[in-house]
Amino acid sequence: PLLASAHESSCIRLWSIQGNLMKELLPFSGCPSGPLTVLCTDIFTKILLTGSKEGYIFRWNMASFLEDSQNKKNEIKEELCWRAHAAEVVDLLIEEEKNVVVTASIDGSVRLWHARTGYYFGYFGQARKFELTDTSRLILPSDVNDFSAIIKEESKHMEKKKVIYPLMLDRDK
């Protein structure tokens, strides 16, 4: 068993049931994560979803890490991120049978997304029925203009480096 905690620093911490810190995760995608406000997992705890104050959803694959958490090669991989809302995400859940993610925001909207791709299906209260089988239509909610970003496996989290750019006058330019 694992315990997961989401933090204002965008950090996710995984704890053993005895209270020992096992892993710290930071999103490394191009999406600005900001403070994390909510997290959930699938039934088998192989997928971890987090939501942020800026309205982003991050999908993490934890399967190899859970098989052998002592093996340093078994990493938790960030697979996907997308902008789900223009405001803070306050709740989310993954419905595995239909392969959808349900998100809720402080703006009062509840939206449906494809769990593996982040494609938008619609919002609760819309006039048309949800079409859960067609993921080829690239539509977005009216307040979001960023499509989902698939994170490549070779991407690595970059450490912040302090870079000094001194101002120098170049008279030739």
Automatic annotation (TrEMBL):
Stored Pfam families: Beta-prop_IP5PC_F (PF23754)
Source organism, top-level taxon: Eukaryota
InterPro entries: Beta-prop_IP5PC_F (IPR056454), WD-EF-hand_domain (IPR051242), WD40/YVTN_repeat-like_dom_sf (IPR015943), WD40_repeat_dom_sf (IPR036322), WD40_rpt (IPR001680)
Keyword Repeat: yes
WD repeat residues: 82-118
PROSITE patterns: WD_REPEATS_2, WD_REPEATS_REGION
Gene3D superfamilies reported for this sequence: YVTN repeat-like/Quinoprotein amine dehydrogenase (2.130.10.10)
Keywords: Repeat, WD repeat
Domain called IP5PC-F beta-propeller: residue spans: 33-114
Protein name as catalogued: WDR64 protein
